[in-house]
Amino acid sequence: MTAIAPIIVGKEAIAELLAYCQQHNLRDLVLVADRNTYAALGERVERALREQGYAPVTILLEGEEVIADEATCINVLVRAPARPQTYLAVGSGTITDIVRFVSHRSRNPFLSLPTAPSVDGYTSNGAPLVLGGVKITVDAQPPQAIFADLPTLQAAPEPLIAAGFGDLLGKTTSVADWRLGALLWGEDYDEAIAARTERAYRECLRHVEAIRRREEAGIRALIEGLIESGLCILDFGRSHPASGSEHHASHYWEMTLLQQGRPAILHGAKVGVASRHIAGYYARLRSISRQEAFARIERASRPDPEAEIAAIREAYGPLAETIIRGHGEFLQLSEAAFVDLKRRVIERWDAVQEIAAEVLPPDEIARLLSAVGGPVNGQQLGLVEEEVQRGLHYGHYLRSRFTITKMFHLFGLGE
Ligand SMILES: [Zn+2]
């Protein structure tokens, strides 16, 4: 189990932070925020610390959109004092990722003060950074403790709340993909962690109306669900519980936007829409007759590695070689292994159906997303239909994992 403690979610988060600093005798503090998160929470934290005799160094990141890239990381590193520090990350995903990286590489701890219930990555030990214009997740560290001020989260901008909800809703397909991979491909799996992740999003579904109204109970359920999902990743040691085909499609869209220099789209907004599409695949799996499915699987032939490599090159451009290297398990799939896989799918069809039965219907996902004011389709995200389809079609190459998109790709179940 993880050692992030305490995890405070409540109205007294700042007071709890002060008590923590005193208890752990933390004197050298660096507070990192951007203009928005400073106004939302950072300023109050800074004042409270000063009133208690602390002299925090505040690093305010300028600009409308802070990007977790080389320049920003160096900026923080240069402005932070050289002696040992405790970093306070006051912000949502991006600020936290910058601080988790910089603090880790300067061998300092950090405390997380979320300003929005927008992602499940607060507790992550990896930092997704934009390096050379490409998003790469590098080793970093989780926070030592989390102090989530509920009134701040309740006042967060609507798109951020909707994005957090979308990221959490995406667990309906990520957990199913994980189970499918364990059942058919022998992926490492932990039922207790899968069940915890499932509980996290289902609990949140009981509070949709309260989330829409930004009531305390709703926002609490959302941030606690997101934190729990993040802890599941940490406890499992990899992202499998919380990230499946919906995240792969989302990553593909993000890559496209970065390559074209277009503005970023909130992570959870993309994941929510992607999850709706992937839930559509599961709905298709539920509706296809056993006879039809088996006929298709029997008919399917092993993908030609040369054609696969050509498809990856076309879809990924400059990133293709890295993707090809990471995808050997599938690209070198032997004829015998493919036949074996077919046999497994057919033999375990009832279990496949049980997994599919747990996934929320796509229409329900759309209804839930729009209930909290989130985008429900590619158009609302600012993507054209062809881009949406490319993400769904090519996203599975991003990870060497067996997911529903991989399964549809291998057996032509989607057509
Ligand atoms: Zn996510």
Characterization of this structure:
With 415 residues, the protein is of the alpha/beta class. The protein has 2 domains: 7-156, Rossmann fold (3-Layer(aba) Sandwich); 160-411, Dehydroquinate synthase-like, alpha domain (Up-down Bundle), CATH 1.20.1090. It contains 22 helices and 8 strands. It has helices spanning 13-23, 35-51, 70-79, 93-105, 150-154, 158-169, 171-185, 191-205, 208-212, 216-236, 245-259, 267-287, 290-299, 305-316, 320-326, 328-331, 335-347, 349-357, 362-371, 378-381, 385-394, 404-411; strands spanning 7-10, 29-34, 57-61, 86-91, 110-114, 126-131, 134-139, 145-149. The strands form 2 sheets. The chain has a 6-stranded parallel beta sheet, sandwiched between helices. Strand 6 and strand 7 (134-139) form a beta hairpin. The two termini are 43 Å apart.
Gist of the model:
This protein is α/β, with parallel strands linked by helices and 415 residues long. Helix content is 60%, strand content 10%.
